[in-house]
Amino acid sequence: MIKILDGQQIHKSFHIDKEKIKILREVSITIYEGEFISIMGPSGSGKSTLLYVLSGMDSFDSGEIIFNNQRLTACGEKELADIRRQQMGFVFQQPAFLKNVTIMDNIVLPAMRDNRKKVKALTTKAQQLLESTGIGQLASRMTNQVSGGQLQRAGICRALINEPKIIFGDEPTGALNSKTAEEIMDHFLQINQEGTTIMLVTHDPKVAAKSERVLFMKDGEIVDELWLGKLLQQRGMENRIEKVTRKMLRVEM
Length: 253
Ligand SMILES: Nc1ncnc2c1ncn2[C@@H]1O[C@H](COP(=O)(O)OP(=O)(O)OP(=O)(O)O)[C@@H](O)[C@H]1O
What we know:
By secondary structure, the chain is an alpha/beta fold. The protein has helices spanning 47-54, 77-87, 103-112, 119-132, 148-160, 178-193, 205-208, 237-252, and strands at 3-16, 19-32, 36-40, 62-67, 70-71, 88-92, 166-170, 197-201, 213-218, 221-227. The strands form two sheets. The chain has a six-stranded mixed sheet, with helices on both faces. A four-stranded antiparallel sheet has the order 2-1-4-5, covered by helices on one side. α5 (148-160) runs parallel beside α6. Adenosine-5'-triphosphate (ATP) binds at residues 14, 16, 23, 41, 43-49. Adenosine-5'-triphosphate is lined by residues 14, 16, 23, 41, 43-49. Belongs to the ABC transporter superfamily. Residues 5-244 form the ABC transporter domain.
């Protein structure tokens, strides 16, 4: 198995007034190429902070992070920004899109920064991604002319356009109804089956149950882990959800 992301002994604190609050306490996590990992835990346990730190979006006090053989600790801001843009994809709960710009342009424009001469190829690729997430007909719509679920699908297309090594999702289904959330999760599953590593932060056992491994955080530490194995067919979902829920409740006690 090839390590794609390796974080060791990560510490992070925030300073509020004169008080130092420890948010991540000696967190170590190794993610292998092709894995699908979920991070769960009570509110405030440090899940999003861990995701931002691992993806080079946020700083940390001490520890080491190696992503795709690159030491993030040794990278400057520009280098980190390049890595994020070229090798990582991000999907957030509320995707931020440029207003008064079409869905297509919202996907293609950020990617053009690294592929200036390939507008045509990028447009073709974006259209394929839109088709595969079921919103091919919405390419020329403005972002305020589509639903939340459709916008989230567009967010996934934008995250995938540069063929990232890993997709980070922070509550990507948190703002969606359960049917749409399920459909979005199935897109994540498909992307993972096609080889992209995925790391999601979620509160929802139904979401986590689709992943291969679930890590549980509490008070800034990874305190437990559940191996579910790859979900190849939807069979056994109830059992997986039950396992995740049981472990989640035990961690939150
Ligand atoms: N910029 C900041 N300054 C100070 N404290 C912060 C900052 N960002 C987050 N925190 C604190 O760090 C802790 C962890 O926050 P984080 O968002 O990582 O938790 P979480 O597990 O993702 O929570 P939730 O499930 O509610 O999103 C919380 O106590 C939060 O208040």
